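Hi L.,

As promised, Metalloregulator ArsR/SmtB family transcription factor:
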Amino acid sequence: MLTLARDIEVLARFGRALADPIRCRVLLALRDAPAYPADLADMIGVSRTRLSNHLACLRDCGLVVALPDGRRTRYELADERLGHALDDLRTAVVTVEADKNCPDAETKGCC
């Protein structure tokens, strides 16, 4: 039973991380290659401050890691299997009906 509870928490945390479009964009960008925050902010089109908050959330969720690189910090997925999981999720959900709303869509927050 303990394993089931842990599995549920891990999946819920992953779901909360994916619930925000900016965090999805960050994860998809990092799926392709590690990146520096300034480059990610430019690529995604958000301020560095806003991106920093999302990176902190993804770090706290255990989905990305920050690696020192000289005077800079580079971000990458915490596990390469996350990239495969993202691809699997993208291809599994092939149709999304625009007129349907997720009951938890109004819930904001992070992991």
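The chain has one domain: 2-92.

Thanks again for sending the construct details.

K.
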